Amino acid sequence: MRSVYVLITVCALLAMFGPMLAPHDPTAINIPNRLQPPGGKWLLGTDALGRDILSRLLHGARWSLGLAFVVSLLGLIIGTTIGLIAAQGGRVADWIAMRATDPFLAFPELIAAVVIAGVLGASTASLIFALTVTGWMRYARVARGIGLSVSNRGYVVQARLAGLSPLAIACWHYLPSLLPSLTVVWTGMLARAILGISTLGFLGFGVQPPMPEWGTMLLDARIHMRSTPLQMILPGLCVVIAVLAINLAGDALRDALAVQDAKT
Amino acid sequence: MISVFVGLMLRAVVVLTGAALATFALLWHAPGDPALAIAEARYGQNVSKEVLDFIRAEAGFEDGFWTAFWAWLAPLMQGDFGQSSVNGRDVWPDLVTAMSYTFPLALVSLALGLAVSVPLALIATRRPGSWLDRGAVALASVGVAIPAFWLGLLLILLFAVQLGWLPAMGAETTTHSILPAMTLGFGVAASLTRIIRSGILEARGQPFLPAFTRRGVARRDVARDHIAPHAAVPVVTVLGLELAFLLEGLVVVEVIFARPGLGSFLVNAIFARDFPKVQAVVLLAAVIFVLVNLAIDMIYRSLDPRVSGRDA
């Protein structure tokens, strides 16, 4: 169990400080030294434009993991707000909020993200927008469900009778009981965001070259698969390790926090 | 039961209308002039202003969002998906061709995933905590973390490039479908194994089971009549999510293996900015998804007597 937390810490540190460890400029083109094998000056070799693969992977951590962090956090804020409005705002607000989440739940999130990012034009901004718009519903469902279940508890009723504003009740009485479940949902959504960002990058709708996002790197490496398979294998391996670490940490958190209802 | 069904159908209609509206609004706000995109696709560069005006009037662009939305929706409700803005051909026949590549692959992958995950989960749960069980859990945990595009490329590298056993690109013969089906089936198997395993373990822990075994009911009968239905409930619940996962994988897999299915159709349409095609695929996917979820909901209700009749 402890190894999971070590792994997740290493991933987080790499995302934050990885670029500083990079021996070369990740976007510096160096055609004479293209497709070099691993070893020597280029520890993991170079890609088709002579860029250092190790440096690109290290910088890629910031793109792939950092963007996933941003996207999942935005989803957390939006989803929790909508869920709490639904739980507190009476039947009409609840009905509107839940019917608004229905069409989003009714569609495979990643396909929706592909369409949104693709139609708006591939860029990092549309990537963030697309994944946030398609990634807040689970938070909203969980926040609403737990919010409704605590709304009749004694301390919430008392707070309401004491004249606390709905916002204060949401912050001081709903959020603490939501936190464990939301944390577990958040780890799941973070893992999904990493997969989503790399998938969109791979399809050409995500982070654009020359930026070294892992999925985008895979797209570049694909055509040189026969000659230099390593440059295709490594970015994918990074995605797998990051997602695995986050999933395992999520499982450990679920057990530690005894969360039952956040499996969706 | 009937009133529940009608309620679910009504919700499905609301969902589909919402999906249609969202798609249309997205394309309406897409950067660039849609009329110019259509004109250039049809007649090449340097289109005259008259042509642009004609196209705008034809598609109802001038009369505002709602008129244009209705101009698209009204024929759609009669089954007319319109024409491609790139080559002017009807969208529907091309969509049918794409489906004929996608659906068999999806079904085979789902079957493959079930054929692997059910026995694996059964073997694993014979002795929870054994090395076999832990191995299955580890395999499943790694499996759900592997992105489909990477697994597909690794399989191409191994079976097509290194060993030369299987073709990597295209969809001409059945052998062309083996690698795509393996890629998708693996992902399905990984996530299903986790769910079925925990479903069985949870069912095993139910307090009513010793009542049967101590009365002398055969273990096999207990497993079939009491554990299996109980374990099926969480599995059926997540089948909808599983389908979403499968559809997402299909897009990527079809692109990697150059299969002319719905996924490639969608990605190519987005790149070509062929919006009628994009709209058609999105709506088709929404219809499929809503119908399947409707079916899952009905099965779920018939499996779990506690929820049948209640509007969940």
TrEMBL record, chain A:
Cell compartment(s), UniProt: Cell membrane
Domain ABC transmembrane type-1: 61-250
Membrane topology qualifier: Multi-pass membrane protein
Keywords annotated in UniProt: Cell membrane, Membrane, Transmembrane, Transmembrane helix, Transport
Claim: Lipid biosynthesis is one of the keywords in the record: no
Pfam family membership, one: OppC_N
PANTHER family assigned to the protein according to its UniProt record, in alphabetical order: OLIGOPEPTIDE TRANSPORT SYSTEM PERMEASE PROTEIN APPC (PTHR43386), PEPTIDE ABC TRANSPORTER PERMEASE PROTEIN (PTHR43386:SF25)
Record protein name field: Sodium:proton antiporter
Natural source organism: Pseudaestuariivita atlantica
